[in-house]
Write a structure and sequence with these properties.
The protein is α/β, with parallel strands linked by helices. It has a single domain (about 5-15, about 60-370), classed as Metal-dependent hydrolases (TIM Barrel). It contains 14 helices and 13 strands. The strands form three sheets. An eight-stranded parallel beta sheet has the order 1-5-8-9-10-11-12-13. Helix 4 packs parallel to helix 5. The chain is globular, with a radius of gyration of 20 Å. About 45% of the residues are buried.
């Protein structure tokens, strides 16, 4: 099968059975709790990621951990390959003493999950992002050992990372050996939000998960990535490959404002080697934007790093965008429906004006195949 015709999902999650068991054992968030169903006919499990989460969390079931459910979802929507990652909150809630061994076990579990999956040609249908025990006081030597473990597992192509790093953010100097090792090993860093912004900002009206997910997550990504850029990480480690969830949050929209503010701040301007918009063109972005206008805008902003011609910008930006679904979150209301996170994001890719069919195919799968070394 030609790589350009693959449909590859780079943003798709799994709560591996070992991880789900840890969540079930916890009395406080993050946890999986069991409670009576609303109609009183039985019990249901609910995933509570944060304290005071709206509606007591969300229903959780086999689609979160059963590989057959993942493959069934892929088959239903024509997805050839998925790059699977443990969903938030990863290992943030564990103690520094227990997190490293759990990380190593979950990495081994994910390698087994992927390596024993069905395949076609020489490719597995499943690959994964490993986990690092990014917690305060976990020694750098331990983190480097686990990076070596991930690099040695053939089906793990990178790591998923939250925005807090070791607790102080991605601009923490203590992360320097981690960035160096990840760049050296060629592992992709999938940066994903979890904490959003303070819940007090959402007011007293009940709006479910809408504001935290639609706005909190993207702004968390925007701030975390900006801090990473301002710290010079991408200058010191030019080989580092960073993939941003949810199309980079608001970073594309605010990149010119960011550049202007830097230009007017001599302390920061002297620290960076390039205009802020240049760094945008050195990142990768999932195409989980849900609309063609938004996706076209991200492509133009990303491509602007190397061109001032709008049509050329979209073409350059297309090379940095990768299809994703965010499965198993945002399920359809009826079992017979296709998932809007699939159909809307594919329609967005198909609808961007000015893209050639080859560029669309690259966003659907060709870019991911090259980024993750599948071709």
């Amino acid at each position: 099968m030609a790589a350009r015709k693959l449909l590859i999902d780079v943003h798709t999650h799994v709560y591996l059975p070992r991880y789900a068991s840890v969540l079930r054992s916890r009395p406080t968030a993050p946890r999986i709790l069991s409670r009576p169903t609303p109609n009183g006919s039985g019990t249901e499990e609910r995933l509570v990621i944060l304290e005071n989460e709206p509606s007591g969390g969300r229903p959780v079931g086999p689609q979160y951990w059963d590989r057959d459910e993942k493959l069934s979802f892929m088959d239903k929507h024509g997805i050839d390959i998925s790059i699977v990652s443990t969903a938030n909150p990863w290992l943030d809630f564990l103690s520094p003493a227990e997190a490293p061994s759990i990380a190593e076990s979950l990495n081994a579990d994910l390698e087994s999950y992927c390596s024993t999956a069905p395949s076609f040609s020489s490719l597995s249908r499943l690959y994964g992002f490993g986990l690092l025990p990014l917690l305060p006081s976990v020694p750098a030597s331990v983190l480097l050992r686990i990076i070596d473990q991930i690099a040695s597992l053939p089906h793990l192509k990178g790591v998923i990372m939250g925005t807090r790093g070791l607790g102080k953010g991605l601009d923490d100097e203590a992360l320097e050996p981690v960035w160096e090792a990840l760049a050296r090993e060629g592992l992709v860093v999938f940066l994903h939000p979890h904490y959003g912004i303070p819940s007090s900002e959402w007011g007293e009206r009940e709006n479910g998960h809408v504001l935290p997910l639609a706005l909190g997550f993207p702004f968390e990504t925007t701030i975390a990535t900006t801090r990473l850029i301002l710290s010079g990480v991408l200058d010191r480690h030019p080989a580092l490959r960073l993939l941003l969830a949810h199309s980079g949050g608001a970073l594309p929209q605010l990149s010119s404002r960011l550049a202007s503010c830097i230009d007017h701040d001599p302390l920061v301007a002297a620290r960076l080697r390039h205009d802020a918009r240049w760094y945008l063109g050195r990142l990768w972005f999932d195409a989980v934007a849900y609309g063609r206008e938004e996706l076209a805008f991200v492509a133009e902003c990303v491509g602007r790093a190397d061109s001032y011609d709008k049509s050329h910008q979209r073409a350059l930006g297309a090379a940095r965008l990768l299809f994703g679904t965010d499965h198993p979150f945002f399920p359809p209301l009826q079992d017979t429906e296709t998932w809007h996170s699939v159909t809307e994001n594919l329609e967005a890719i198909a609808g961007v004006e000015g893209w050639s069919e080859e560029e669309r195919e690259n966003v659907r799968g060709g870019n991911a195949a090259r980024l993750f070394g599948l071709v």
